[in-house]
Every structure is written in C-alpha cells, then in structure tokens.
Amino acid sequence: MPPLNATSLPSLAGTVSVPTYDRSRLRTGIVHLGVGAFHRSHQAMYLDRLLERGGAEEWAICGVGVLPSDRRMAEVMAAQDGLYTLVVKHADGSLDARVVGSVVEYLLAPDDPDAVVEKMAAETTRIVSLTVTEGGYNTDPVTGEFDAGDPGVVHDLQLGAAPATSFGLVVEALVRRRERGLPPFTVVSCDNIQHNGDVARHSFAAFAALRDPDLGAWVDREVPFPNSMVDRITPATTDDDRAETARRFGVEDAWPVVCEPFTQWVVEDRFGLGRPPLEDAGVQVVEDVDPYERMKLRLLNAGHQGLAYLGRLAGYRLVHDAAQDPLFRRFLLGYMEEEATPTLRPVPGIDLDEYRRSLIDRFSNPHIRDTLARLAFDGSERLPKWLLPVVRDNLAAGGEVRRSAAVVAGWARYSEGVDEDGQPIEVADRRRDTLAASARRQRQDPLAFIADRELFGDLVDDERFTTPYLEALTSLHERGARATLDTLVAQLAGA
Ligand SMILES: NC(=O)c1ccc[n+]([C@@H]2O[C@H](COP(=O)([O-])OP(=O)(O)OC[C@H]3O[C@@H](n4cnc5c(N)ncnc54)[C@H](O)[C@@H]3O)[C@@H](O)[C@H]2O)c1
Ligand SMILES: O=P(O)(O)OC[C@@H](O)[C@@H](O)[C@H](O)[C@H](O)CO
C-alpha cells in the first residue's frame, strides 16, 4: 500500500473519495493557526467541498503550527503534501472516507517564524483563522482580561524577539501589512468560546497595545473579527483509526482524522477582504451568531462537562458509555431542559427539543470512541466559560442551578486526582497544581475549591449556589457519583 501523498493520490481513487480539482492551480487565501483534529474535520473540509464545486481556487489553506508540539503534524503534512483522510463514523457503524486536499502548505512557526509572518503579510492572504483552544486567547476566565504576564507574551514583547505566540505572529504580520499599505486580513476564531471573535479582538488588540497603544487602537478599529459557532465532535486520532483507515480504505495515512457525521458552522458576515462562497458548502452566514453559539456552548459543551467529571467518577472512560447510561441521560437532559435552555435566546430555524435529543444521540454514537479525558482537558478554561454563565443567568433570574452545582462539585471531586476506586486520575489542566491544592483541602474546608475567585468570581458568596454545591460534594465524598446523581435526578423529578 503506497503512503498517502500527491503522487499516490490518483491510485487511491478506486477505494476512497479523492479531490478531483487540480491542487497545483490553487492559491493560498487562508492561513490557519492550530491545525489539529478539529480544523481538519471542519473548516478544511468545508473548503475542500468548495474546491470540489469549483470557483474557490484562491481560498486554499496554509496551515501553521504555533507550538513546538506541532512538529509531528509538520512532518506528516510535509510527507503527505498536506493531504489527509477524513473518516466520518455513522452511528450504525458505517464509514465514509474522503481525502481532503484544501491544505496545500504547512509552516511550523518555531522553525521559521518569519516565514509565517510573511505568509500572513502577503497580499494574497485575506483570512487568518484559528483553532488554538480556549486557553490560546490568554484571557482571565472571570474578568476576560488579557494576561500580559504570560511568559510567551513577555517574550514576544521584547525588542527584536522572534515571535513565538499567535499574538506575536499575527500582530507582526498586521504591522508589516500596515507599513506596506495593505489592508488587514480578517481574523476568524473557530474556537469554542462565546463571542470568539470579540474575545480574539480583545486579545490581539491588547497584545498590540502593549507593543504600541496606537497599534492596539488600530487593530481594535480596523481588523474584522467575525464571531462564529463551530460544531463537529472530533476526537483525537488513535492507532486503531490509522489501522482502520488502511484496512477499510486502502490508504496508508500517518494522521487521518475521524469525526461524527454532524457538522455545523455559523459565522457572521464581516470579512474585510472578501470570503469564500461559504454558503455553497453548507455554512450558515448570518448577521448575529450569538443565539447559535449560546445554544451550542451551553447545551453541547457544558453538557460535555457534565459527562466528563461525573462520568469518570462513576467509572466510565468513553463518552458514549456514559451517554448511553439512562441515569446520565436523564441528568443531562434535565440540565439541558431546566437549566441551560431557560438562559438561551430564540435560535432561528432550530427546534430546541429536537436539538437536545440529537445531542444525546450524538454523544451516544459508539463508533466515535471519544474520551471523557478529552472533554475534561483544561477544565479551568472551559467550565467557567460554558457552565458558570448558565449558573449566573439562573441565579439572576431565580432559576434552577442544582444540576449545574452537581457538575461543579464533580469537577471539584475529580480534581482531587483519585477516583472512587482509589485509582489515580490524570488531571490535564494548566492550573492542575492550584486545582489539586484546593481540592485536597475541601474535605476539611468544603468551599475551598470554589473559593478560587479567579475561576468562580463571587459564586462562593451566594448560598443559592453553595447550598446545592455542598450537598452534592458531600454526597460525592460519602456515596459516590452514581448514588449522588440517582438521588438528585429522583429529587428533581419530584420537584
Ligand atoms: N475537537 C472537537 O470536537 C472540536 C469541536 C469544535 C470546536 N473545537 C475547537 O477546536 C479547538 C482545538 O481542538 P482540536 O480537536 O483540533 O485539538 P487538537 O489538540 O487536535 O489541536 C489543537 C491545536 O491547537 C494548538 N494550540 C493549543 N494551544 C495553543 C496556543 N496557546 N497557541 C497556539 N496554538 C495552540 C495546538 O498546537 C494544536 O495545533 C478546541 O479547543 C475547540 O475550541 C474542537
Ligand atoms: O474541544 P474543547 O476542548 O473546546 O471541548 C471539548 C468538547 O466539548 C468539544 O470538543 C466538542 O466535542 C465540540 O465542541 C463539538 O463540536
């Protein structure tokens, strides 16, 4: 079996769908920072669809790895000429595979930061997009302020330093464009953050202002940052995925990507230098993305947080196993119906009953084999941004918060780093040490975990939250996750 690359591509056409467009004629119009699993299952897939239809030849993608840990991706992209296999896994076990051809270049910033800056500064680049995770915006979880003390930021602000962060790279490219009389590109964040464009604007303008206040004001004023809502469950690729891609589709791909069938991208129509005809690929281009992103982050992503900690404590490792458990289904649906949905705005064209049910079905797809560990990664960047806004809105409106409080208590118990069988839990979080220290104190001082005001603000002062939180935490300590959920679900059903 030949390895996947431009030369072997024609020979694969019999076993897998491959690009029929001429990749040698494509031009790069988009530079994407953070080419991970999600970019490859989502934005690059939409662009591949457009390229297949024709008429978007100037919108091919140059991928960029910002971190040294992107080296493996750089090697694979170089060896495979940017090609990779996207394997869609349906709930009935059937698979579709397609070799995606829209990523035509890849640059690793730590090797050559100037090449990355020049690529973004080039006149042909009209969009810079990002999937650099929630933590990649370097903001305080409660205040939203940019962290000027971050070591990468401090480094990038030194005179003459080669940029090593997204902020340093993007702002330097904007500076060069401005000096050359070129208008700024549009920055499109595709991360799971409410108002991701506004957050990106705030962070990039704050960094630019630290270089020069006038530059900060210019970025804030002149660079378009549309908000977007993005959705497609995409787990990390495993060796089994590689083997299955070879066996089922005859493709020897060092880094395929697997995902669910569902996909959605809703983006605001604010592009300074034009955009691809995204609608033709099924993207919803709207005036205001807020209702969509609120719905998705508060139902899907906060729902994921509900599974991540309590599911792991109850002994599960895989998302679908927890989601198929009737107790977890009732708990999750209850959270979605009674706590998240009352905080949403009407969402054009969406039946929320149907949306909630479809989420449970999506979580239950056994072939995705998504892990609870992936959902629990960097909880300190996620839970405060997805679940705590639901709590705050409900407290303000006199609404229900008991299930949300149980999820937060689950996170607190999980952060102790030991499961209910006494086995270690690998807590992967940039604040792991702080979380572990406060979680370890909570057996004596039960509010210790949520006393961290950087994460929880003033929630610790509100008895309407602390009372159910303490009940859940005590029950998790004394009776475990299952019994805690059982009681809560029964109580709330009778409420
Ligand atoms: N995987 C999904 O199901 C999914 C779905 C919707 C949205 N997303 C969004 O995409 C993001 C990435 O998910 P993924 O599955 O591609 O993860 P991944 O781990 O496969 O890739 C993450 C990429 O982000 C880069 N990155 C991380 N921190 C960074 C930083 N501080 N600066 C610059 N680059 C940084 C990594 O180097 C890597 O290239 C998520 O955090 C989320 O916001 C993911
Ligand atoms: O990717 P993260 O870390 O932002 O969040 C974990 C999951 O909730 C998330 O990846 C979902 O699978 C995704 O948002 C579905 O579209």
TrEMBL record:
Keywords on record: NAD, Oxidoreductase
GO annotation (BP), single: mannitol metabolic process
EC number assigned by the record: 1.1.1.17
Top-level taxon of the source organism: Bacteria
Pfam families linked to this entry: Mannitol_dh, Mannitol_dh_C
SUPFAM superfamilies tied to this protein: 6-phosphogluconate dehydrogenase C-terminal domain-like, NAD(P)-binding Rossmann-fold domains
Catalyses which reaction(s): D-mannitol 1-phosphate + NAD(+) = beta-D-fructose 6-phosphate + NADH + H(+)
Chain ranges of the Mannitol dehydrogenase N-terminal domain: 29-279
Record GO terms (molecular function): mannitol-1-phosphate 5-dehydrogenase activity
Residue ranges of domain Mannitol dehydrogenase C-terminal in the record: 288-473
InterPro entries: 6-PGluconate_DH-like_C_sf (IPR008927), 6PGD_dom2 (IPR013328), Mannitol_DH (IPR000669), Mannitol_DH/Oxidoreductase (IPR050988), Mannitol_DH_C (IPR013118), Mannitol_DH_CS (IPR023027), Mannitol_DH_N (IPR013131), NAD(P)-bd_dom_sf (IPR036291)
Signal peptide start and end residues: none
Family: Belongs to the mannitol dehydrogenase family. UxuB subfamily.
Protein name per the record: Mannitol-1-phosphate 5-dehydrogenase
Origin species: Geodermatophilus sabuli
